[in-house]
Amino acid sequence: MSELAQPSAGIVVALVLSAVLFTTGLVGFLVRRNMILMFLCTELMLQAAALAFIAFGKMRGDTGGQVFVIFILTVAAAEAALALGLVVLLYRRRETLSAEAWQELHE
Amino acid sequence: MTPWYVAAAIAAAGLVMVLRPGRVALRRAGAVIGLAGFAMLMGFGLRLAGASATSASTPLALAVATVGVIGAVRVITHTRPVFAAIYFVLTVISAATIFLMLEAEFLAFALVIVYAGAILITYMFVLMLAHQSPEDEIGRIGAEDYDRVPREPLVAVFLGFFLLAALGSVIERVPPMAADSAPSASIRTTDAMVQAQQRLPGMQAADGVPADQPDNVHVVGLDLVARYPASLELAGVILLMAMFGAVVLARRQIELGEDERRKAAGMGGMVLDLPENERGGA
């Protein structure tokens, strides 16, 4: 069966893609100044984690990785709802999406 | 390990050039350099897996991964937020394609439906509600300053380079050809599955599939309720709490100053001030 040799390359591609996506998400979170896009970058990181879960699950022949991705989706949905609710509140106060409008919070 | 560091450094240099605002030629060169670095990363990973590991579907997987990375980089570099969100959909779809190649069919479609269908639509709504792009004198749509100019790109990419290097050391430790030594079927018939097939008359394999070879949806579903019931309940609680939180946040009144209140009143106040005979004349 040719399927036996196939997964290995697919797994490595998924793992490298996961690493690069996670790094891109982190860089984006630091670089972006728009609050909504900062949260979009965290979704990028969650996506990379899901990819790694699926790849390692496939490698070990265990479906536990896929089940965990379902929970990642749950947390991502909850996070999106709460984060966007907060962003809308913040926007109504300052009339801007710039994260720098809230710079005094860290002082 | 050294080739991985070199490749990561090249990709990082490309990303820095792409992140700089202005100078389109420089950004294009950065994109080429970054893609070359990504290709080197992939080549290093594939060399770890061994030449015999590659198969007919490997070029397709590489192409899909490249599209996903381009989408991700556009998410963090595009100056218009709505387009960044659309590029995120591109990344989601390419990740779902990789899921399909790794035989996680249920999650591939769940990812597209939940991410591209639900979460991204929410992001789009909030972007369009909260944000109006400024226009210049001749009506072209521009970008806000905070979307155009990145914050500390050098430092961020430097941090990202270290993260990528650390992740590379993990990938290197993945034993080559691991998929062959593992039980080849990611789909195994467990006791719970056999029991479920005996107990549930409606649970039958699809046409052309042997009955003892359940498909991905059956396996993941049974795993979810048989192996992780407590986590499933917990996920329900998380969703419920998020719903409560969103309702509480949305209902909160904001104390506006005198100026903001006048601005928010806007049209509504003018309609009320109309004289009696002009209101509802038609």
Question: What does it look like?
Answer:
The complex is a heterodimer of chains A (107) and B (282). With 107 residues, chain A is mostly helical. Chain A has one domain (2-106): Helix Hairpins. Chain A is 78% helix and 0% strand. In chain A, helix 1 runs antiparallel to helix 2 (35-60) and helix 2 packs antiparallel against helix 3. Chain B has 282 residues and is mostly helical. Chain B has a domain at 2-175: Four Helix Bundle (Hemerythrin (Met), subunit A), CATH 1.20.120. Chain B is 70% helix and 0% strand. Chain B contains twelve helices and no strands. Chain B has helices at residues 2-19, 24-49, 58-77, 81-101, 105-130, 145-148, 153-172, 178-181, 191-199, 216-226, 229-251, 258-273. In chain B, helix 1 (2-19) packs antiparallel against helix 7, helix 3 (58-77) runs antiparallel to helix 4 (81-101) and helix 4 packs antiparallel against helix 5 (105-130). The radius of gyration of chain B is 26 Å and the shape is flat. Residues 178-187, 267-276 and 278-282 of chain B have low confidence and may be disordered. Chains A and B meet through helix 1, helix 2 and helix 3 of A and helix 1, helix 2, helix 3, helix 4 and helix 5 of B.
The poorly predicted ranges of chain B are 178-187, 267-276, 278-282
**Strand elements of chain A, count:** 0
How many individual β-strands of chain B? 0
- Rg of chain A, Cα atoms, Å: 18 Å
Order of helices and strands of chain B: HHHHHHHHHHHH
Mean of pLDDT of chain B: 78
| CATH-derived topology of the domain at 2-175 in chain B | Four Helix Bundle (Hemerythrin (Met), subunit A)
Question: What would the keywords be for this entry?
Answer:
heterodimer, A: 107 residues, mainly alpha, Helix Hairpins, 3 helices, 78% helix, 0% strand, disordered N terminus, B: 282 residues, Four Helix Bundle (Hemerythrin (Met), subunit A)
